[in-house]
From TrEMBL:
Species of provenance: Acorus calamus (Sweet flag)
Gene name as annotated: FHT
Similarity remark: Belongs to the iron/ascorbate-dependent oxidoreductase family.
PANTHER family given in the database record: OXOGLUTARATE/IRON-DEPENDENT DIOXYGENASE (PTHR47991)
Swiss-Prot/TrEMBL keywords: Dioxygenase, Iron, Metal-binding, Oxidoreductase
Protein name in UniProt: Naringenin,2-oxoglutarate 3-dioxygenase
Length: 344
């Protein structure tokens, strides 16, 4: 049972205290050890996507493939509206509690909702985060369930979600090509597809060394586009050491998720990452998750299975995978081991 009280957001709870409430304090063995993080501005691959539809496409595809073999890719897309979206979404969290709580639910089956931590119904230690979860595809099926305030919220977020989907599709095609597959292989493998986003709000924390915004985890979906404000907090594990990924204006951070790892038969690996908090500034991040439909059958591409690369994973539906991921929560980095092929 969760220790956090139902219908209490972190951003409202901290107004009542100057210390970290006990339900947010991690055991000593499970703290972020912020002094050991590499903050030397180590960069992940930076790729200009403006040439993805032109004569330079082969070079862009090759660069994306190389980035997928490391720990993520940071990509620039000149068509996005960038930081203006982040500021628009921040307005939602600055509304009075009475307005925000109209969207609150701790029911994980509710597709569009405001909540806190990760899964307050099952977790024992809470995460230093509030989040607004929005399903985005097909947009017309969900937008009427989104918050109606601030007044421009649905228009701004709806337009952004369309552009994020366009970019996701282009990236999925490029990833397929980089593996030597047909251009549409990954997109078709995801079935009817789904898309949702989480607007993550991390308030300032009086003792950031005691807790996480989100602990180390790998995304269960196929591809994640992360839009950040200018506050650092994202970290990735590189060569056994946590490395800070500092925000770069007008970029997305692109994370490979578990489903790409399966479809590529382990050629590309999902990214282990976490979010930490700080004592001075609030942080806002907006990950958009591009997912298979729940009935999509996920399995390694047959063209990527041979004597040198034996089958790593059995076939499974995305519903089967996601349900196990959600029930296990963020207590483990990934649950892909549960889907290994019998002889793997």
């Amino acid at each position: 049972m969760a220790l956090v009280s139902p219908k209490v957001l972190l951003s409202d709870l901290i107004n009542q205290t100057n210390s970290v409430p006990s339900q947010y304090i991690r055991p000593v063995s499970d703290r972020p050890n912020l002094d050991e993080v590499d903050i030397s501005n180590v960069s992940i691959p930076l790729i200009d996507l403006s040439g993805i539809d032109g004569p330079n496409r082969p070079e862009v595809v090759k660069a994306i493939g190389l980035a997928c073999q490391t720990d993520g890719q940071e990509s620039w897309d000149p068509r996005t509206t960038g930081g203006r979206d982040v500021e628009g979404w921040r307005e939602f969290f600055r509304q009075p509690e009475s307005e925000r709580m109209k969207s609150y639910s701790d029911d994980p089956n509710k597709l569009n909702r405001l909540s806190t931590s990760f899964n307050v119904r099952t977790e024992k230690v809470s995460n230093w985060r509030d989040f607004l979860r929005l399903h985005c595809f097909p947009l017309e099926d969900f937008i009427h369930e989104w918050p109606s305030n601030p007044p421009s919220f649905r228009e701004v977020v709806g337009e952004y979600s369309k552009k994020a989907r366009e970019l996701s599709l282009k990236l999925m095609e490029a990833i397929s090509e980089s593996l030597g597959l047909h251009r549409d292989h990954m997109v078709k493998a995801l079935g009817k597809q789904a898309q949702h986003m989480a607007v993550n709000y991390y308030p300032p924390c009086p003792q950031p060394e005691l807790t996480y915004g989100l602990p180390g985890h790998k995304d269960p979906n196929a591809l994640t586009l992360l839009l950040q404000d200018g506050v650092s907090g994202l970290q990735v594990l590189r060569n056994g050491k946590w490395v800070a990924v500092n925000p770069i204006p007008n970029t997305f951070v692109i994370n490979i998720g578990d489903q790409i790892q399966v479809l590529s038969n382990d050629r590309y690996k999902s990214v282990l990452h976490r979010a930490v908090v700080n004592c001075d500034r609030e942080r806002l991040s907006v990950p958009t998750f591009y997912c298979p439909s729940r009935d999509a059958l996920i399995e390694p591409a047959k063209e990527l299975v041979d004597q040198e690369h034996p089958l790593v994973y059995r076939s499974f539906t995305y519903a089967e995978y996601f349900d196990k991921f959600w029930n296990r929560g963020l207590r483990t980095e990934s649950c892909l081991d549960m889907f290994k092929a019998p002889d793997a």
